[in-house]
Amino acid sequence: MEEQLDRRTRRTREAIKSAFIALVLEKGYDEVTIADIAQRADYNRGTFYNHYLGKEELLRDIHDEFLQGFASALLRPYEGLDRIAAKDTFPSGLMLFEHIELHRQVFQALLSVDKKLGLEVYDVMRESMRRDMHIEMEAAGQPIDYEIMLSYQMSATVGVFLYWAETGFKYSARYMAEQLMLLVDTRIDSVTFIRNS
């Protein structure tokens, strides 16, 4: 009986979340009402309030769930491993892009509401990398500051996520992950300046 209630609760919450995301994308967050959400989810307002205090709590729940997916996607491919070569990091990049692809409407809706979402994704990923792994750099002439390198890598990755959203996700998750790996492994050769006459 308890399992049935849990399943029903999950189903109801998912319907409410889906309705909310669709409405935010259609109308914008400020225009969405609890009545709109309940009607779209095919429930009454009382059912909504049984699960959420208001749309702010609903938004926070969706937001937190989405961000938690990043931290777990980063590490999931390497469970049980102690060390991998840099060339073998593709699976985690792919899982990050697949997480966004699977939740692309959520990502777009959150971006439309929270302009700091990119920074929050950056913070979640950087914190996970600080806590759960350590990148070893190849020996170079000049020493590279670890924190600066980590910030650079995470900023670049988030920038690619945001570019992908701007393009309406016109490429597959696999293509984006492949492109990110190429970018990480490629050094710039030169810069040519274009002069407009």
TrEMBL record:
UniProt cross-references to Pfam families, sorted A to Z: TetR_C_8, TetR_N
DNA-binding region, residues: 33-52
Keywords assigned by UniProt, alphabetized: DNA-binding
GO molecular function: DNA binding
Name of the protein: TetR family transcriptional regulator
Ranges for domain HTH tetR-type: 10-70
SUPFAM superfamilies per record: Homeodomain-like
InterPro entries attached to this UniProt entry: Homeodomain-like_sf, HTH-type_Tx_Regulator, HTH_TetR, TetR_C_Firmicutes
